[in-house]
Specification:
The chain is mostly helical and 184 residues long. It is built from five helices and no strands.
């Protein structure tokens, strides 16, 4: 069904007694819709006439807009638009290539730094064990010295002779083993 402005003007609504429509609002709305439809129909007629006088057929379904003929004055504008599109595309590709190259360089830098840290860690591997052993020796020497001082202090209080073993800490594992064997 084709709708015309006259159909809109002549449309009548039934009124309900309780929850009816406001007749003024309905008439105002109908007037606005009719004016809008009338303007659209005039615009459609004008464009159809312009299209017919230019000898250009409208694009149907499945027709590519890029294949449509251009008006005589529009050819230059289309060429400019194509050139601008190519320029923008080239700039975008160049910028994208720069971003990718920068990202690859950064990734390579990170990999090189990680490999360098791995090499340093591999060469310094035994050092933490040596440091830990040295710390244990120093700590053991401090404990032995402290034990000797406590024993000496207790001996002074009780008039007992201090154990001469605890006076000087052993410096190597063999010395400690010898001292332990001497006490027994």
């Amino acid at each position: 069904m084709k709708l015309t402005p006259l159909d809109i003007y002549q449309k009548e609504f039934r009124r309900k007694t309780l929850n009816g429509l406001d007749p003024e609002d309905v008439e105002q709305f109908l007037f606005q819709v009719a004016e809008g439809l009338e303007a659209l129909l005039h615009e459609n007629a004008r464009l159809t006439q312009r299209l017919a006088s230019g000898g250009v057929e409208p694009a149907g379904e499945g027709t590519d807009v890029g294949d449509a003929p251009t008006p005589p004055g529009g050819r230059q504008e289309v060429d400019q638009a194509r050139q601008e599109a190519r320029r923008i595309g080239d700039e975008a590709r160049a910028k994208g290539k720069t971003i990718v190259d920068d990202a690859r360089a950064e990734a390579q830098r990170i990999l090189d730094a990680a490999q360098a840290r791995g090499t340093q860690t591999a060469t310094r591997g035994p050092q933490p064990d040596a440091r830990a052993r040295q710390f244990a020796r120093d700590y053991q020497a401090m404990i032995v010295k402290h034990l000797a001082q406590v024993t000496h202090h207790l001996a002074e209080e009780d008039d007992i002779q201090p154990d001469p073993v605890g006076e000087e800490p052993a410096t190597t594992d063999e010395d400690r083993t010898t001292e332990v064997g001497a006490r027994a």
